[in-house]
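Co-fold these.
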Amino acid sequence: MEYFQFLIILMLSPLIQGIIRKLKANMQGRIGPGIFQPYYDLIRLLKKDMVISGVTSWIFKATPYIVFASTAAASMIVPVITTKSPFDVMGDVIALIYIFALGRFFMALSGLDAGTAFGGEGSSREMTVAILVEPMMMLSIFTAAISAGSTNIARIAGSGLLFSPSHILALSAFMIAIIAETGRIPVDNPDTHLELTMIHEGMLLEYSGKYLALMEWAHYMKQMLLFTIAVDIFFPAGISNGTESLALASSFGIYIVKILFMAGLMALVESTRAKIRFFQLPSILGGAFVLALLSLLTYIMMSK
Amino acid sequence: MEEIINKAVKTKRLFNELYIEVRKDDFKEACVYLYGKKRAILRLMFATDEREIDTAFKIYTVFSVPGTDKFHIIVLPLKDDLIFPSITPDIPAAHWYEREIRDMFGLTPKGHPDLRRLVLHDSFPCNSFPLRKDWNITEPELKEWGKGLVQKEPYSFMKVEGEGIYEIPVGPVHAGIIEPGHFRFSAVGETIFFLEPRLFYTHKGTEKHFESMSFFDGVKLAERVSGTSSFSHSTAYCMAVERMAGIEITEKAKAVRTLLLELERLYNHIGDIGNMCAGTGLAVGYAGGAVIKEKLMQLNERLAGSRYLRGMNEIGGVSKDIFIQADDILNIINEVTKEYKDFMKLLTGTVSHIERLENTGRLSKDIAVKLGVTGVAARASGINDDIRKAHPHLLYDKLDFEAHTMARGDVFARMMVRAEEAECSISMINALLENRYKGELAASIKEIPPCSSALGYTETPRGSVFYWVMSDKNGRPLRVKFRSPSYCNWPAVPFAVHGNIVPDFPLCNKSFNLSYSGCDM
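Predicted complex below.
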């Protein structure tokens, strides 16, 4: 059972996306598509033929697999419903962040590969955002790691930490990192059709059919994975430390509630704000970095 | 003014139109005098092929002097030598008009700084001038053009060279359901250094089409020039034909037209304010604007049987008395007023949205004046110009309203000018519904007098629209020229986005909300 907990992320991530979309639609006064729509979209895309530009190289064709595989690998090392993960030894936060970086690197390359204007724009903007997000994400996780005495996510989650001021600061920074990483308002607009404003979507513009399905699915997984990391690190309460089926079932229930809370929060943030001007991103992301730094300092000061 | 009139070959007066026919040597001087000394606004410039009547092509430049309800129309006949002095170096607002005249009539503006083709695209043969009366085209010719065998004139975009400058071509096919237009950005990083739009992909030969139908059928075509300004366009067209036929419409017809013009303005302005939210990613605001707009459009459908108010105008008046549905209008307007206030409160209270609008897409007054920008865009840059005030028509001289201006010229100003005008439209609608109006719905006109002409105009939600019509010997259209506000405002967009960042372009563009179809004709 514990071998397959990553399947929860693999299979349920489109549903979470569907729920966020539905919530957003309701907040706008629309009915919106059903919550299973992302599954239908993926199935439809998987059945479709692809149109691939003649000028692309192997990078364009390899990227969907690399992105999907790296995200799937990342979800294996994250404890979802039990901290007793068979991939425990590899479950390091630093490894995790670099697995994400691998996917992102190839995605940016693929955006450039087809030589279109929008792809290049998307890649350049994504890398700009990444430079700002990665250190802050690391720093906020480190705060939790130091207090748990390990950079292993399972051990951080298993340490059952109580809430402290430094955790709240780190959580705030991490939430902003999630928004930036998942391409949501106010950093990026996932629902826009305006190519000139796109960041994440800009890199995917040239993809179609199966490749697009893989890229989209990987994106849904990454989103749920980030939610999972957030709940593992900052609200680990309720996660099972063993592998008994009853404990796993209750852990699963608690996990779903936590993820739904995260999804609701995302929908709320997206519905109440406008997208920020691109050149002001450093100020919001820089602010989040300061939060992460403060959380670390607070921890060091409080522990003395 | 006397000086010009003394030099004139002949003058003619019709209502508030003063036609001054000049010799070629005096043409430029007369235009520059009006523009420079009198601060006149260039409203329209066009050519006609009057070789059948007067053995000449003629160029008309329509000016209106601020503060007077009068149009000065300088007329230049061209008989043998098809070259006329370009006024663009002195009056930049004439730049597109002159290029269009060259494309359509083969009359060359001498001294124009940019003689690339404007309206006609590469596959259209050179030396073929579609608005000339003797122009025709056969089916085999059309096929030949399609194959590309005819000599074409390639279009060269302006090149910006320098370190770190790269070009971003966008369109003509866009991701959303919008009309086609090509935008060539030259950017330094994310900053827009230069933008060249290339439009006229939806050029449909509407002006030529008008010549093939009667003046009465032309109303239907005028309604379809630009979807969201259907009623304004048909009003301006009807007004031109009615003035030409020398009839005054009844007070009732005037009231119906005024009311519908304001209803059209209201749904457009609220819809446009909502659309700006799509540019900033504020989905809640976008949805809110769409809800109110939908209510107004459903009201339109109940009133006119058409969401875009088509079929209401006819030559001589209107087809239906909408005052019998006054209760329905009042109910909806009251409901909309309340929702609209909440909506504006939401938008102005959302700091992240307002922050995006402020200082984005700034259009300076100087450039706006030079390019002859009209409507909301002009008023948001501090130009106090509203056709409803400058040239009162329908019931606008009896209604109490103001032209709202803002000096800052950014996206925020364009939103606020729209917001204030929408409120103004609501109060005008309420005021109009309070009174009773006398008269028939429509006067009957059977005949259009031969060889006559007149101007028609009104203020669309985007700005001023002008129609100029002329009848031939049989009282059929010889020339129908129209100019939509988008035609004046498109050239200003590149100036507004200069120095902004590429991701802000859609927002700037939406704040102007220009029509492609209305511009391309």
